[in-house]
Amino acid sequence: MNEKTEKDKLAKLIEGLKQLSTEGLDFTKNETLVPKMESYINEIILFNSAYNLTNTSDFEEISVNHILDSLSAAGTIKKLADELEDKTAESSDSANCTSTEDAANNGQKTHSIKIADIGSGGGLPGIPLAASLSDYSFTLVERMDKRCAFLENQAAILGLKNVTVMKKEAEKVPAESFDLVTFRAFRPLDKKMIKTLLALTKKGGIIAAYKAKTKSIKEEMDGIKEIVKEYQVIPLNVPFLPEHQRNLVVIRKQ
Question: Helix crossing, 33-51 with 3-20: angle to 10°?
């Protein structure tokens, strides 16, 4: 493949990252993000037929419909994680001191908040989020052996030391394992599923669900209103998909 074609292939990914960049999370300053996502997309294409990871094996479609879609919520997830960490620090002075000491020793800020991608599949949104938020800890929860092997291989290839793969069904994850739980293209939020997600989320923690149309969100949330009294819908903008309605549903565990 010549250099021009290679640049053309990456054009939408690079431009999309520019569009998604904010003052709080500037993807353009992360020099490793584009090459990591390029490698990840190529691996998805390579293993897609065997593992059924995405609904397409086209590089551009994966870039937009899956990578940029996953990263469209990265800034919001970072804010939510920081909000949880601030609350934890306020309630525990000793924990705050330890965190500061660790950061000084490592030469960078580290975060104690544990984030999970439930039903990770091929690693979406977990791998793009982990690559863009490298100082946050991510656990990719997946029940299928071959997909877990793929996820572990990707974490190693991409050098994502902040990623752990957990081979379990969501229902069997230990109670209150995570501060923030997210998922994308997962089962609908019915009563059984929301109870499972709330169980594995720590008290005071957050569930952040990638969802599509607001009408569908209302129907799902009406079905679990006895369990979830309040929730927030945050609109997401996915570059190159202006008609693609996307939202992040935020539920706070009381």
Answer: 100
pLDDT single digits (tens) 135-144: 999 999 999 9
N-term to C-term CA, the chain = 53
* pLDDT band, residue 186 (cuts 50/70/90): confident
DSSP assignment, residue 73? Answer: T
**131: its two tokens:** 């690559």
User: Cβ distance 240 to 67 under 8 Å?
Assistant: no
Long-range contacts of 230-237 (CB under 8 A, 24+ apart): 234/73, 234/76, 236/72, 236/73, 236/76, 236/210, 237/19, 237/20, 237/72
Which 3 state secondary structure label does DSSP give 183?
strand
Percent of the chain with pLDDT over 70: 91
SS (H, E, C) 197-250: HHHHEEEEEEEEEEECCHHHHHHHHHHCCCCCCCCEEEEECCCCCCCCCEEEEE
- For residues 231 and 108, give the distance between their C-alpha atoms in angstroms, rounded to a whole number: 34
